[in-house]
Design goal:
- With 66 residues, the protein is mainly α.
- The protein has a domain of 39 residues.
- It contains one helix and no strands.
Length: 66
Amino acid sequence: MNEDMRYIADDGTVLTDELVEELAAEAENGFANSILTPVDGRPWEKETSTGSSKGGNDDRLPNPLV
């Protein structure tokens, strides 16, 4: 990873190249070791109705995924 480019999750986790590769592998394998619970709306937003509570696109991952 380029030392000038660091990505940090909301919870303070540094997203290293290795972590991204690990998360991608888990996704490609269908999250075999995870229990996924379906939810209505987008749980990382305060409001789950139509329209965004943040006033635009938010490309951040929800905390449970990082």
